[in-house]
Amino acid sequence: MSRTAIVTGGSRGIGAAISVALKEAGYRVAANYAGNDEAAQTFRDQTGIPVYKWSVADYDACVDGIRKVEDELGSVGILVNNAGITRDTPFHKMTREQWTEVINTNLNGVFNMTHPLWNGMRERKFGRVITISSINGQKGQFGQVNYSASKAGDLGFTKSLAQEGARAGITVNAICPGYIATDMVMAVPEKVREAIVAQIPVGRLGEAAEIARCVVFLASDEAGFITGSTLTANGGQYLA
Ligand code: CAA
Fold first, then answer.
1. Helix (H) or strand (E) run with residue 6 in it
2. pLDDT tens-digit profile, the chain (240 residues)
3. Does the reported pTM lie above 0.90?
4. Burial, 180: exposed, middle or buried (Cβ in 10 Å; 0-12, 13-18, 19+)?
5. Distance 122 CA to ligand 1 centre (A)
6. Ligand 1 pocket check for 135: Cβ under 6 Å
7. 179 is catalytic
8. CA dist., res. 220 & res. 78, Å (int)
9. In the chain, where the domains are located
10. Where are the alpha helices (DSSP H) in the chain?
């Protein structure tokens, strides 16, 4: 019987590519999304992957959403914490709201999704928790104090939880994408983006499918010895 995977933020950008790649690899996939109904319906119609709406920033909503997915698709073995937002601005202009929104989605959201699934994975002696962090959690980025802090937090979460899951057959890993051609990166002012691409040795933005392939690998049974690791995929921009 194939395994069930939840991909948060799974109907757009990197998340959509991950949902599709996992489906193609034989998993039953639930794509979570928080806001963009139109994009989610289009994604569902084009891929046949069911979409589920809740905010990962809301713990109770995660509990309810996970229960619905498990009722419909079976126990979740693979969690891909992909949902993430930016509120880029220099620190001297950053509001508490911009700080809190980013931490609540990118860091607390990882707790909110992983925590309700953890005991089930422990009982079944199998789990894959794969969190999409970022190059900017590794190196920092002007204008992203909130985002970089959240993404660095995701790496600490991963390294600690990996140690707790190891004996229970659960691997916990992070992927740090560099700049990938998604709406999020396209929202960066063009001049800034051009300057960023100039810093990428391969000379281009990454493709969402290139991150999705990393997820499929880490989700597989063959990756059972890999835990607590950070898989860097950034075109050589930052050598962690
Ligand atoms: N390093 C040093 N100084 C910088 C700088 C940098 N990288 N970027 C801007 N500055 C300077 C400017 O030159 C300017 O200086 P002066 O006042 O002396 O001219 C000052 O900072 C203020 O610049 P702005 O007026 O442009 O400030 P702003 O309020 O408009 O905000 C910004 C600028 C929002 C931070 C903008 O630079 C930006 O969007 N930067 C991109 C941040 C980024 O890389 N985000 C990644 C998004 S994609 C993502 O997050 C996915 C992922 O995981 C990779």
1. strand 4-7
2. 689 999 999 999 999 999 999 999 999 999 999 999 999 999 999 999 999 999 999 999 999 999 999 999 999 999 999 999 999 999 999 999 999 999 999 999 999 999 999 999 999 999 999 999 999 999 999 999 999 999 999 999 999 999 999 999 999 999 999 999 999 999 999 999 999 999 999 999 999 999 999 999 999 999 999 999 999 999 999 998
3. yes
4. buried
5. 43
6. yes
7. no
8. 10
9. 4-180+208-233
10. 13-24, 37-47, 59-73, 96-106, 108-124, 135-139, 145-165, 183-186, 190-197, 208-219
Residue 144 beta carbon below 6 angstroms from any ligand 1 atom: yes
Task: Report whether residue 146 contacts ligand 1, using a CB cutoff of 6 Å.
Answer: no
Among 132, 146, 188, which is best to mutate for testing ligand 1, by the most ligand atoms less than 8 A from CB?
188
CATH class of 4-180+208-233: alpha beta
Ligand 1 neighbourhood includes 181 CB (under 6 angstroms): no
Minimum CA distance residue for ligand 1 atom 10: 142
